[in-house]
């Protein structure tokens, strides 16, 4: 098992790694819309927060040697399901291969953010 750490994604804010690789599978921890440079939540609404979350996820995947096209499944957490349509508008620009996905609304997310995304990917 290998630990994946990207300097281009926010450092973990708890006792976990950004991702783990086991064989050719990569399991990312949930990424939230933190600016990697300062660890602060990005300003803006669901659109801006989703974009930053995806950029952070991309950095972790890249460190593992994969991209969005190798993502098998994502799990997406929204603070408010009213944001679902806007979230999807941003999400679909990056996940062109349409991986399997679960998307649920939750009562609260770390640091009061609006979105969190985790992924499972496969390397060649």
TrEMBL record:
<protein>
    <submittedName>
        <fullName>2-iminobutanoate/2-iminopropanoate deaminase</fullName>
    </submittedName>
</protein>
<dbReference type="GO" id="GO:0019239">
    <property type="term" value="F:deaminase activity"/>
</dbReference>
<dbReference type="Pfam" id="PF01042">
    <property type="entry name" value="Ribonuc_L-PSP"/>
</dbReference>
<dbReference type="InterPro" id="IPR006056">
    <property type="entry name" value="RidA"/>
</dbReference>
<dbReference type="GO" id="GO:0005829">
    <property type="term" value="C:cytosol"/>
</dbReference>
<dbReference type="InterPro" id="IPR019897">
    <property type="entry name" value="RidA_CS"/>
</dbReference>
<dbReference type="InterPro" id="IPR035959">
    <property type="entry name" value="RutC-like_sf"/>
</dbReference>
<dbReference type="InterPro" id="IPR006175">
    <property type="entry name" value="YjgF/YER057c/UK114"/>
</dbReference>
<comment type="similarity">
    <text>Belongs to the RutC family.</text>
</comment>
């Amino acid at each position: 098992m290998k630990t994946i750490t990207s300097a281009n994604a926010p450092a973990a804010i708890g006792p976990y790694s950004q991702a783990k690789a086991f064989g050719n599978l990569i399991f990312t921890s949930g990424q939230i819309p933190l600016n990697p440079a300062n660890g602060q939540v990005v300003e803006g609404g669901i659109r801006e927060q989703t974009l930053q979350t995806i950029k952070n996820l991309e950095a972790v995947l890249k460190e593992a040697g994969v991209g969005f096209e190798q993502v098998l499944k994502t799990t997406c957490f929204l603070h408010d399901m009213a944001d679902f349509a806007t979230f999807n508008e941003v999400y679909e620009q990056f996940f062109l291969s349409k991986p399997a996905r679960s998307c649920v609304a939750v009562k609260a997310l770390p640091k009061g953010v609006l979105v969190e995304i985790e992924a499972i990917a496969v390397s060649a």
